[in-house]
Every structure is written in C-alpha cells, then in structure tokens.
Amino acid sequence: MNEHLVSGPARPAVTAIIPTFNRASKVGRAIRSVLAQTCQDWELIVVDDCSTDETEQVVRSFSDYRIKYIRQDRNRRVSAARNTGIRCAQGEYVAFLDDDDEWLPEKLQKDLEVFRNSDPRVGLVYSGMMTLDEHGRVLRLRMETTSGWVYDRLLIGNFIGSTSRITAKKQLLDSLGGFDETFLNAEDYDLCLRVARLSKIACVPGCWVKHHMGGDQNTGSLRRVCEGREHILQKYRGEMKPRTLAIRLFAVAILLFNYEPRRARAMAWESLRLRPRQGWLVAALAASILGTGCYRLFLGKMIRARGDVQLARARV
Fold it and tell me: Running DSSP on this structure, what letter comes out for residue 257?
C-alpha cells in the first residue's frame, strides 16, 4: 500500500494547482493525470480565469471531493490565477500543472521522495519533461541535473522552464508573495529566481511531465516572449556577472530586432563588448541591416539550429 494514501480530511501533503482559461477540451486530461498519481495524498485546486467556454462543466464533472473549483470574477491572467490557488492551498507542498500538460503517474511521489531525502534547505524541486507535438511525437526531452545553490546558474538561463515541472514548499511561496503579477511572460522564471535566492533547488531524477504543443497551444507571440525576457533583464541586471549580462542581453536583442532594431543593436553591441565571441549575435546584427523580412528568416534558422521548441512555435 502506498504510504501517501489519503485517510481522511487531514491536511494533504501536496496541493496541485491548475490555472485554466477556455481549455474545456484539454483541462480534463490534466485533471485525470492528477487523479492517476501513485501518491494520493493531494488536493487539487482548479482556478478558472473567467472562461467563456465549457471549462466549468468539465471540471465539475469530476466527483472526487479533493478537487476544488474556483472561478475568478474577471480574467486576471495566469500569475493571478496561480496566486489564488496558492492562497487557498492546504498542502505542505504546492505543485503546478498547466491546463494543457499532464503528469506521469509517479510525478508527485518522486517529488516528495526528493524533498524528504534532501537537505531541509531545499525549497523547490523540478523533474524532467518531454515536449510532444499534436500527434504525440516527442520533440524534445529535458533532463537537467543541476541542483544546489543555483541562483547564479539560473540567472544565465532558465534551465527549469515550465511550471508543470516544479513543486515548492508552501511556506516559501507564501513568504515570497507567490508569482509577480506584473510579468505577462517569464513569470515562472522570475519565481524560480526568487526561490533560488533563498533556498536550494533539487532535480528529481527521471522524466515525469508531458508538455503538449497542440494546435491551440498558447506559446505566445515573439513580442510577448521578448517582453518577458526584457523584464527579467531589467529586474535582475544589477545582480548579473558580466558574462551573464552578455547572455541575457543577447536573449533580448535577438527578438527585439524584429520590432525595434535600433534598440536591439545597442543591446547587441553592449553584449559583444562584454563577451566578444558570439557568432550568432554578429550574424543577427548583419541580418538586421538587410531588413525585417531577412532578419526573420535568419531568426527562424537560428531557433531551429539551437533547438528552441517554444520559440519555434511562437507567433511573430
């Protein structure tokens, strides 16, 4: 018998939070993946961000008493929805699941095992993830191994990625105030950075998350992604080492070339002064001189070469 089986109305070990908006066709799959967990000591809070489709009916079709449905009074975006879930959470730990993703059955069990066998200073754990296309074919596997005091490493790049991969201590999330609702993109990256300032982060061995890239998957526009990256740069710039700052300037400039080439060039030159040998950035500068159309062809080629599935699916 699994040691985490529910035995009554006691406080659950984990609160799973699914924020959702107009995903009646997908959210049921996410809920079923929580129901299928080998660790059954959980509650599930589904926060509906004022959907206009049949999302509420789908959620209420599940009769398990551990599933709680909360509807926002207006559309406040995903960070606010997650924060609503955090405030209502009763679990010692909080795990996040996007409404179009799903967990493999051992996900929560593996997360709890790592927490219980790790340094008490670990505040967040994350597992591997597979990205699937609309036909179920694997596009990418992310199997990071980075653990410990990772703040400096995380500033260089978001190796954790999707919130569907992470479980964190409820007490720590409360102390941080949850997600920063001023972010319209990269709010997950910002949360992980703030966690990493205060606590260790541990990697859960194995791949326990399926991230679906279906036809209606909302990766967002390149402009939105760029805004998120720039927000990260502005918020954390003062804490970055020169090499890290060069990398983050590159991350913003390559997207900003699409819309504000003059400002992008200024960022690119600053990045190159800090870290001269950046072949892709030099090529981006050259392509931008030839016009937006030429640059976007170059950007597509660069994204494919670097294997960035999320950006490859984003809209210009």
Answer: T
H helices then E strands: how many in the chain? 13, 9
Instruction: List, in order of start, the domains of the chain with CATH numbers.
Output: 14-213 (3.90.550.10), 232-310 (no CATH)
CB 316 within 8 A of CB 220: no
Q: What is the pTM of this model?
A: 0.91
Going 257 to 263 to 267 to 272, the CA torsion angle's sign is positive
| CA distances, 260 to each of 51, 59, 255, 280, 285 (Å) | 34, 43, 9, 18, 13
CB 133 within 8 A of CB 213: yes
Q: What tens-digit pLDDT sequence spans the chain (316 residues)?
A: 333 333 345 899 999 999 999 999 999 999 999 999 999 999 999 999 999 999 999 999 999 999 999 999 999 999 999 999 999 999 999 999 999 999 999 999 999 999 999 999 999 999 999 999 888 899 889 888 899 999 999 999 999 989 999 999 999 999 999 999 999 899 999 999 999 999 999 999 999 999 998 655 445 688 889 999 999 999 999 999 999 999 999 999 999 999 899 999 999 999 999 999 999 999 999 999 998 889 989 988 988 888 777 776 666 6
Nearest Cα to Cα of residue 139 among 217, 226, 46: 217
For residue 103, give both structure tokens: 């967990």
| Separation of CA 88 from chain center | 21
Structure tokens belonging to residue 223: 């402009």
